[in-house]
Every structure is written in structure tokens, then in C-alpha cells.
Amino acid sequence: MKAVYIHIPFCTNICSYCDFCKVYYDEQLVDRYLTWLAKEIDLNYKNELIETIYIGGGTPTSLTIDQLKELFIIINKFNLTNNIEFTIECNPENTTIEKLTMFKNNRVNRLSIGVQTFNEKYLRLLNRNHNNKQVIELINDARDLGFNNINVDLIYGIPNQTFDELKEDIDQLLSLNVPHISTYSFILEEHTKLYIDKYENIDPELEYRMYEYIRNTFKKRQYVHYEISNFAKENYESKHNLNYWHNNHYYGFGLGAHGYIDNIRYENTRSINKYCNGQFLYKMDVLSLEDKMEYETILGLRKIKGVNKKTFKQKYKKDIYDVFDIVPLIDRHDIIDDNEYIYIPIEKLYISNDILINFIK
Ligand SMILES: C[S@@+](CC[C@H](N)C(=O)[O-])C[C@H]1O[C@@H](n2cnc3c(N)ncnc32)[C@H](O)[C@@H]1O
Ligand code: SF4
Questions:
Q1: pLDDT tens by residue, 245-285
Q2: What does pTM read for this prediction?
Q3: Binding site membership of 92 for ligand 2 (Cβ less than 6 Å)
Q4: Do residue 76 and residue 164 come from a single domain?
Q5: Ligand 2: does its nearest atom lie under 6 Å from the Cβ of 11?
Q6: For residue 252, is the peptide bond before it cis, meaning its omega torsion is within 30 degrees of 0?
Q7: How far apart are CA 257 and CA 94, in angstroms?
Q8: What's phi and psi for 122, nearest 5 deg?
Q9: Domain tally for the chain?
Q10: Which atom of ligand 2 lies nearest, measured to the CA of 58?
Q11: Most buried of 201, 268, 274, 292 (most Cβ within 10 A)?
């Protein structure tokens, strides 16, 4: 069984913080792109059974109805299991009822909605192209059509954001009562408008307080914190994303997409011209056993449960303690061993990157 990620890199509006792989929407360019996407899939897909599929962006919902129809014709080439988890990212300003109906008719059963903030001042600062009314309408329309597996993305620690403003965002988010929430701490990426305009990160201590507040508040509302940035009601964890963190295989198709198939991790080009000329690949790494164990541990420790020691041994025929120098990390309480799993303690998740560095050879 495998997972498939498909990247749709078009946006009608460029957000001031975004360094993802995207270009401005252009009708003809999208048509050309879809032709090449189909070719890339034809060339590489080996007809395995697919368990999860995720269409991300960019803004997949920026495509017209006809273009989405074309996209679903391409997706119909995949051999999907009966209980597929099929997610599509939706932006509130352009996800119409017609598009939602089309998603429903094409087996999409999970929506991921980019909200980022409910505060109008910060929506403007982030150059988001939607308002709160559109978010509420989208969620209501989706529920009316039978979508109950809905994720909302929120960013916290936006430049100048105060603790009270974050609390208001969390209150609004919780009032939507969606079963899955991803909360990302704001990253001031180079080459973005906010970086060029010399905005600054908020104080790290305030950011830490925000993270703690988010964790505790969601816990009280029965959301399970299952990965550094992800919270879900019982049985609503993202299977697709868990597949990444379990270090399992997946195809990545489209501009800038990443994939992991057999022993190879690969990355597609971020140049739309190269992609629409059939030069899909940017680079590929053939992984050694050491590389695989490193990925397994670094990705696995992003999960709150951590890395299962027995599974590690079964997969790599080695004891994780013989591969990594874990004892000093346990002495410092950076890692906990509960006999079954090793994991980062919840109060240290905030500095997880500093801990994960110890597993890179
Ligand atoms: C691949 S992006 C695209 C999602 C979709 N196009 C949208 O705009 O909602 C996925 C998520 O990454 C998060 N993200 C993107 N840039 C970020 C940044 N600079 N700092 C923190 N989170 C970011 C946002 O929450 C966003 O929804
Ligand atoms: S955040 Fe989403 S909508 Fe905004 S530019 Fe990035 S990919 Fe496009």
C-alpha cells in the first residue's frame, strides 16, 4: 500500500509569509501543467493499491470546474482502496458548493482548510484573501454535503500578535468544532514580503506561552495531541501525514513535490518551465541503511508517541540504542524511554529541533 501526494502550485493571491512552491494562477498554464502532471504519473506509477491521497498546494481550489474535472480524470488512474483517505486543501475564498460537490462525487472525504487567523488585522498583514464569514460558510456547506473529516490550519506567533489576540483566535477556532487542527508557529521565511519589509518574530517566550496555551486548551476540549503541530479528535488523525512520520513510502507528483519510493527519496523541480517540459526531477538520494534509520527516528520523534523500539528492530535488525547515542539524552530528560517507545517529553516538544539534531550523523 502506498500514499500519493499531488501538488497544485497555483494561487490567485500570494500571501506575505509564504515560501511554498507556488506561482500565480494562469488559465493556460494550469491546462499545460495538468497535461504534464498526467505524464509524470503515467511514467512513474506502478499501479499499487493507494491508501491515502492528498492534493495540496498552492491552492488546488483556484482551479476552474473544468480543470478540476481534468484533475479527477488523472486521479482516476490510481488504484484506490475502498476505505481511502482522500484529502484536498481548500482556500475559503474560492471553494464553491459546486467544487465541494465535485469533490464529494470523486471520493474526496477529508478537507483541509487554510484559515491561519480570524483576526482581520492579521488577515490583512498576511495578505489573505478571505474573511471569517467565508470560513464559516465553507464549513457549513461542507458539512451539509456530508464532509465531517475537516482540518483547519492556524498560524500563531504572527509578528506583533499578542497573547490575548491568540486566545481570541483559539476561541473562534474551537467554536467551529472541527475534528482536526494543525497549528503552525509563524516562520519568517526569507524572500517573503514580511521578511523584506523587516517584520520581526515575536519574543520566543511569548511564543512558548502561546504553544503551551494551545496544547492545554485543546487537551481540555478532547483533542489528542499526536504530532508536534497536530491535534485530532479520536480516530481523526491524518492517516496520510502519519504515513510520512512512520517513514513509509509515498509518491510525490507535481511541481516541487517530494517522494520516497523503495530506497530513493526524491524531489521534483520547482521550475514550472522545466516541469512543463518533462524535466520533472530535481534530485534524488539513494538511501543507505544508516540514512533510513535516521529518517525513521527523526520523523518518528515528531509523533507524541515517539518511536516504537520493537518496530525499529524488526525493520532494521538493529537495536536503536546501538545506532544512536541515546543515554545522554535520557540523562538530560530530552528523551524518555517507557520500555516500548522512546519519545520527546511533551514539555520539550517546543525545542524538538535542538533534540532531533542529535540523531543526525
Ligand atoms: C502548503 S501551505 C498551503 C495551504 C493553502 N494554500 C492555504 O493557503 O491555506 C500549508 C500550511 O502551511 C502553513 N504555513 C505556510 N507558510 C507558513 C509560515 N511562514 N509560517 C508558519 N506556517 C506556515 C499554513 O498554515 C498553511 O495553511
Ligand atoms: S499560503 Fe497558500 S494561498 Fe497563500 S501563497 Fe502560500 S500556497 Fe498560496
A1: 999 999 999 999 999 999 999 999 999 999 999 999 999 99
A2: 0.97
A3: no
A4: yes
A5: yes
A6: no
A7: 23
A8: -80, -30
A9: 2
A10: 7
A11: 268
